[in-house]
Amino acid sequence: MQGNGSPSKSPGQVHQQRLSRAAARSRPTAVPVLIVLLLLLGISALGGGAGLIIDPSGDALGMPVSLLAGGPFHDYLVPGVILFGLLGVCPMVVVFMLWFRPNWARMPRAGLHGAWYAAMVLGIALIVWILVQMTILRFFLQPILLALGVGIIGVGMLPAVRRHYRHGGPGLASS
Questions:
Q1: What one-character DSSP code corresponds to residue 9?
Q2: Residue 146: Cβ-neighbour burial (10 angstroms; 0-12, 13-18, 19+)
Q3: How many CB atoms lie within 10 A of CB 45?
Q4: H helical segments located in the chain
């Protein structure tokens, strides 16, 4: 304990806090844009997924079960669970990883932080989800969500973003 009653921080915690501050100061503009795109994905998928889980008939969201005719599902429960988990919860975890770049998500052999790879996988997952969905049903948000997936990948591939998440980049220790 320090004299003021607050717990003292270890030298490692102080160093990590300084690295986080340095990373925040040096964060390229495209990184917050990527984070906002992932937040849009996560929030909308959490809401849509929860709606489908709560009401698997889809009526609450204006999506009758008849839209699923010819597809593998008889109601929206399984798609709702997938939407909620894969495209709702996962982007929120990735946003945390992109912002804080925790050591547990480092991938030294890969060259870039695991947060970057996870963001790219989510962009691809969204595009695949929408393309598969378009073969089963038509929904007015599909083109917007397809553009969101392309945007996530496009922003993530910008050189400034890749540099920011490269090992040894601002706020990241080299391995």
A1: P
A2: middle
A3: 25
A4: 11-25, 30-54, 77-84, 90-100, 114-136, 142-156, 159-164
The residues near 131 (Cβ < 8 Å, ≥ 6 apart) are 146
CA–CA separation, 91 and 85 (whole Å):
9
Q: Which amino acid is at 23?
A: A
Contact 84, 123 (CB under 8 A): no
Sign, Cα dihedral of 110, 112, 113, 118:
negative
Q: For each of the chain's 175 residues, which pLDDT tens digit applies?
A: 555 555 677 776 665 665 555 555 689 999 999 999 999 999 999 999 999 999 999 999 988 898 888 788 999 999 999 999 999 999 999 999 999 999 988 888 888 999 999 999 999 999 999 998 888 777 888 999 999 999 999 999 999 999 999 976 655 544 4
Buried b (16+ CB within 10 A) or exposed e, 59-79: eebebeeeebeeeeeeebbeb
